[in-house]
Amino acid sequence: MRQLSGFYLLMVLIWAGPAGAQYLSAAPDIPLAEGFRENPDATLVFDKPQGRILQMSATQAVGANPTRTRQFYTASLPNLGWRARPSQDKNILTFNRKGETLRLSFRADTVIFDLTPKAPFED
Length: 123
Prior knowledge:
Elements lengths: L1 H15 L5 E2 L7 E2 L3 E3 L5 E5 L2 E10 L5 H11 L6 E3 L6 E6 L2 E8 L2 E8 L6
Antiparallel strand pairs: 1-2, 3-5, 4-5, 5-9, 6-7, 7-8, 8-9
């Protein structure tokens, strides 16, 4: 029962979120940093028996600050159950959660989100 309660709490946090919080349309469990707009024409979605494969991107209209955006995702994704993985590239953040890997690539004023099933050798 305790595990079920945690699930409901997570769902409330995801759907309610902070006032004004937005989430990606194809991945409603991944927040969109403030000031960013999703690029719907650049969204790819595949559902496979092994899990979902998504690629999405979002662009900041004015005054992009990649450092602040990385800080937002570094702080917010663990609160949603994502576990950070080490990366050699400062422009890439990688997270794992329940059989999925989320990779965020930062390019100037754009964030690219790649969500794939976790490889069997990843812990």
